[in-house]
Design a protein that fits this description.
seven-stranded mixed β-sheet; alpha/beta; 11% strand; 378 residues
Length: 378
C-alpha cells in the first residue's frame, strides 16, 4: 500500500483509494487489484509504443519559458516580481504527475488534453513561486501514468526511467542553449522530484554544475525517499540546514498534526519551510509568510475516462494568506497545524501532498530570492 502515497494523485484517485482502504483485509486488497487491473493501461510498459521524444529546441515542448506568455509568469496579488528573461538566475522546474487516464503508460503529449491542462495549472500553483528570483524553464515530458505507481516497484521504476530520459535531455538543452552559464535552481514536486533526484545524482553532482546550482527544492517525494543513502552516493551535494545554505537540497512531505508518518523503505530528509532547518523544533504559524489559495481546478479524469480538458483559464493568482499554519518535522514527516482558513483541507488519504507548495508559497518565493542573492554576492 506504500505505493499509493504518491505525487500528483488527483482528488478522484484519492477518493477511490480511500474506498479501497476502507475495505478490510483480503477484500480490500482484491478491490485494489481489480480496480487497477481494470483501469490501468493495457499490457506491460513497452517504450516502443510511446510517442516520439519531444524536441526541446521547439518552444511547444516547454510548459514555461521566459520568452513565452505562460502560467509561470503569474504573480500573486500584492506581490512584486521582476520581468521574466531579465533575472540573473534561472530555475529548471520539473512538474508532478498530471496524466491519470489509461490510454498509455506514458503521456502522449497532447497539448489539448486534460493532462496538459493539469501541467499548465502546476505552472500557476507551483512554478510561479520562483517568479521573483528566476527565469522559469519547465519542460513538458512523457510523464509516467499515475497507474505506474499502483503496481510493483520494478514496473514503476521502468516507466519512471523512461520519463527521466526526457527530463535529462531537456536539462541538457537548457544548459547548452538557454542558461548561458548563469546560476540555477532545480525545483520539483512528486514525480518531478523522482526525476530531479536522479538528475542531481547523475548529472549535476559529479561535475562542475553543482557549483552553479543555488539549491534544489525537491518537494513531495512521498514513498521514494530523499534518503541518507542517496546523499552518501554524492560527493558534493548535501542537505540544506539553514535559510541561506547553497549547493544543497531542501525536501519535505507534509501531513496534519497527529497523522501517522509516511511509510518509506528508508528515512527521508525533512526541511521545515518556515525555519529552513532540519531539526524537529516547532515553527510557529507567525513564520508562515503567506499561503496561496490554489488557482484553477485540477482535471480529475481517471482510468478509462476521456482525457479531455475543462478549458479553464487562470488570469490571476489570489493574495497570499500569512500566518496560516505552523510546521514541525518529526520522524522525517512535516506536520502542519490545521490551517486557519478553509480551502487548505487534507486529501482523502489525510495528507497535504497536493498543497505542499501552496501552504508555504511565500516562504518558498522569498527563500529562493535569498539564496539566489547569496550566491550572486558570495
Amino acid at each position: 500500500m506504500k505505493a499509493l502515497k504518491i505525487a500528483g494523485v488527483s482528488v478522484t484517485v484519492i477518493a477511490l483509494i480511500a474506498i479501497m482502504l476502507s475495505v478490510s483485509g483480503l477484500g480490500g486488497r482484491l478491490f485494489l487489484l481489480a480496480f487497477t487491473a481494470y483501469n490501468k493501461p493495457s499490457g506491460t510498459f513497452d517504450s516502443a509504443e510511446a510517442v516520439a521524444a519531444p524536441d526541446y529546441s521547439e518552444v511547444e515542448n516547454w510548459a514555461a519559458l521566459p520568452t513565452t506568455s505562460d502560467y509561470a509568469d503569474l504573480v500573486p496579488k500584492g506581490v512584486s516580481a521582476g520581468t521574466q528573461g531579465e533575472f540573473p538566475v534561472d530555475v529548471f522546474f520539473i512538474h508532478p504527475t498530471g496524466f491519470l487516464t489509461s490510454g498509455s503508460w506514458t503521456s502522449p503529449m497532447d497539448v489539448n488534453s486534460g493532462t496538459e491542462e493539469n501541467t499548465r495549472l502546476m505552472m500557476a500553483n507551483q512554478a510561479s513561486a520562483f517568479n521573483g528570483c528566476c527565469n522559469v524553464y519547465a519542460p513538458r515530458y512523457r510523464q509516467a501514468n499515475i497507474f505506474a505507481y499502483f503496481g510493483e516497484a520494478e514496473e514503476r521504476d521502468s516507466v519512471l526511467a523512461f520519463a527521466y530520459q526526457d527530463v535529462k535531455r531537456a536539462f541538457d538543452y537548457f544548459i547548452n542553449h538557454y542558461n548561458q552559464n548563469r546560476p540555477f535552481i532545480i525545483a520539483s514536486h512528486s514525480q518531478g522530484t523522482h526525476h530531479a533526484t536522479r538528475l542531481l545524482k547523475e548529472v549535476i553532482d559529479p561535475g562542475d554544475l553543482h557549483q552553479r546550482m543555488v539549491a534544489a527544492y525537491l518537494i513531495g517525494s512521498t514513498s521514494i525517499p530523499v534518503s541518507p543513502s542517496w546523499f552518501d552516493a554524492m560527493n558534493n551535494i548535501k542537505p540544506c540546514t539553514q535559510e541561506d545554505d547553497l549547493h544543497c537540497v531542501i525536501h519535505w512531505d507534509s501531513k496534519p498534526e497527529g497523522a501517522p508518518a509516511y511509510e518509506r523503505p528508508e528515512p527521508s530528509l525533512c526541511t521545515n519551510p518556515l525555519s529552513w532547518r532540519t531539526n524537529e523544533e516547532m515553527a510557529d504559524a507567525s513564520l508562515n509568510e503567506g499561503a496561496l489559495p490554489r488557482a484553477g481546478k485540477r482535471n480529475d479524469a481517471i482510468g478509462k475516462a476521456p482525457d479531455t480538458p475543462n478549458n479553464q483559464k487562470v488570469i490571476a493568482l489570489d493574495q497570499p494568506i500569512p500566518a496560516l499554519a505552523s510546521a514541525q518535522c518529526k520522524g522525517g514527516t512535516l506536520y502542519v497545524g490545521e490551517p486557519a482558513v478553509s480551502g487548505f483541507e487534507t486529501d482523502r488519504l489525510g495528507t497535504y501532498h497536493i498543497l505542499e507548495y501552496s501552504l508555504f508559497y511565500m516562504n518558498i518565493h522569498n527563500n529562493a530570492k535569498l539564496r539566489a542573492q547569496s550566491l550572486l554576492t558570495h
